[in-house]
Amino acid sequence: QSYCHRLQHDMYFLTSTSRLNEQVIDKIVLQLNRVYPQILTNEEAEKFRNPKASLHTRLSDLLKHLQRKGDRHCQEFYRALQINAEQLFNDLPSRKILKTPDPTEIDTDKEQYMLNDRGPVFFLACFSMAAGLALFWYCCNSETQVIGRARRILGFSPIIIGRHVRNICMLYLEDMSRN
């Protein structure tokens, strides 16, 4: 697998969730600029070290620029990444593929990310839907006595809701049972 393809595969991993901080990116850019063979010119290095641009933008532009330049440039990027951020280099998805003997094996880190991609709003929507269906089923069942059971539940609820709210709910239920 060429280094350009590996970099394309690792691009999302490198640019997501601020895995690289500004100091590490500056070190990598300086190494690509100053070490033989010179991968980045002085103008390109200044562009990728510009503090006015966001870190994510600079890193994305750097990776795209290296991919356009060719395989040798991408290889030098990996070398600079290994020198300046060895732990991150070892955690790269392309490195994990190279380490695994079976290419058909499922990448558990990627699978875990895919399963946990939904946020708290999704959880609350699913929970609300389930609670609503349970309440609907409970209230529509003709065999249950809603008020009697509700009184028992509210009687044990000073921990869940405040005492004043519980008293108001109990008075409301008593009025409902009289009607």
Automatic annotation (TrEMBL):
The keyword Disulfide bond applies. One of its GO terms (biological process) is regulation of apoptotic process. The chain crosses the membrane at residues 120-138. The keyword Aminoacyl-tRNA synthetase does not apply. Its main location: endoplasmic reticulum. It comes from the Eukaryota. Residues 38-96 form the CARD domain. Keywords: Disulfide bond, Endoplasmic reticulum, Membrane, Mitochondrion, Transmembrane, Transmembrane helix. Pfam families: CARD (PF00619). It is found in: Endoplasmic reticulum membrane; Mitochondrion membrane. PROSITE patterns: CARD (PS50209). Associates with BCL10 by CARD-CARD interaction. This is Caspase recruitment domain-containing protein 19. The lineage of its organism: Eukaryota, Metazoa, Chordata, Craniata, Vertebrata.
